[in-house]
Fold this sequence. Notes:
Number of strands: 33
CATH superfamily: Kelch-type beta propeller
Number of domains: 1
Amino acid sequence: MTLSRRHLLLxxxxxxxxxPALAQVHQHGMFSTLREGGTQDLPPQALQQRVYxxxxxxxxxxxxxxxxxxxxxxxxxxxxxxxWSGRMHVVGGYGEQRVDRxxxxxxxxxxxxxxxxxxxxxxxxxxxxxxxxxxxYAVGGHQDQNRKPYTDCFVYDMAADRWQAIAxxxxxxxxxxxxxxxxxIHSIGGAIGDTSETKLSIDWHDAYDPAADRWQARSxxxxxxxxxxxxxxxxxxxxxxxxxxxxxTNVGDHNVYDPARDTWTLAAALPTPRSGHGAVLYxxxxxxxxxxxxxxxxxQNEAYDPVTDSWxxxxxxxxxxxxLxxxxxxxxxxxxxxxxxxxxxxxxAIHEAFSLA
Length: 357
C-alpha cells in the first residue's frame, strides 16, 4: 500500500503545529535488522506500509507527539513496557541479531535519558511485564522468534536492582497480556507453539498471588488471542484487540474482566482491529497506538472513554510501529522501540511521547 497524499494530510492535520513534520522525525541510524549487523536508516518499505486512517470520530483535543531520547539500541517485540515512580521499564525482545535478549532498559522521564538495569535472568521476547508495589514482574515469553514459549517468571526489586525466580506459569506461553490488580498478577491470553505452523492463540487466564507464590486458574478470555492491549481501569481489566493465531486475523474485540465476580463482559470494539499495539491508561482513558496487520503498520492512536463506552481518534504516531514498549509516566505516554515494517525483521530505537494540552 503506497502512502497517498490523503494519508499524509490526514496524519499531519491531527498533529499540533509545533510537532515536527512526519517526514522529518526519522533520524539516521535508528534502525537495525535481524540479518545484518550495524544500524541503518528507515527502510523504504516502511513508507509503503504505514497507515493513519481511523474510522473513529476526531477528538476535539487531538494532542501532540514529540521526539524523546532514543533507546540505547534498536529493539522490538519486547511485548510492551511498564512504569513505576517516574520511570519506564522496557524488558527483553529482539536486538543485535538475536530474538532472546535479556535487556532491561529504564527511561528516566524527568531527565530524558536511558539507563541500564539488571538484565533478565532469562532472555526472551514477548515477555509479559507489570510493575506494582515497587516490584517488576516478568511473566513467560518466547525463546525463539515468536515461538517456543517457556514458563519462567521473575520478580525484580527496584530498590535492590535484583531479580529472583518466582513460581513458574502452570503452562508455557508468550505474548500474553499481564496486569496487576487487587494484589494479584494476571496473565491473560497469549500464544503457544514451537513452530510458525503450530502457533496457536490461547484463552488461558491465570492469576499469581505474590504472598503465596502460587498461580490459580481464572475464567478464560472469551476468545483466544495474543498480542492484545491489556490494561487496568478502576476495578476491571480491559483486553483490547489482538490476533487469532497470526496478524492476518486481527480482531477489535474488547473484553472487560471483573476480578470480584470472575466474569467477562463486552465493551465497545477497537475501531481499528490490530495486534502488537500499545495500550495505556492516560487521564482516565485507554489509548491504543500502533500495531500491525498484513502489509500494514499502524500509526493510529485511538482512545476509549469508559464513561461513555466510546472511542475517538487522536494525533497519530509520528513513526508507526508495532511490537513496541508503551507506558504512561507522569502526564505523558512514552512509546519506545518497535518494528516500522510488518514482522520482526526490523527493530528501531525511535522514542516518542504523546500528551494532551
